[in-house]
Design brief:
about 10% helix; 1 helix; mainly beta; five-stranded antiparallel β-sheet; globular
Amino acid sequence: MEYGLYDIVIMKKNHPCGDNKFEIIRLGADVKIKCVNCGHVIMISRVDFNKRIKKVIKNEKKEEI
């Protein structure tokens, strides 16, 4: 599955706040994602992230340099 920085992804399990949409805010050996509903930030390994991802929703937001 292809995903990039600032893409919105849908995970298999819901966050405790009730939403399952997350924004990718950091990519590397670990992936940092932020809950779209409550703003909670989670960092998980890329291997676990690839297992838990369900769908990718592309986002128009670009990385600012």
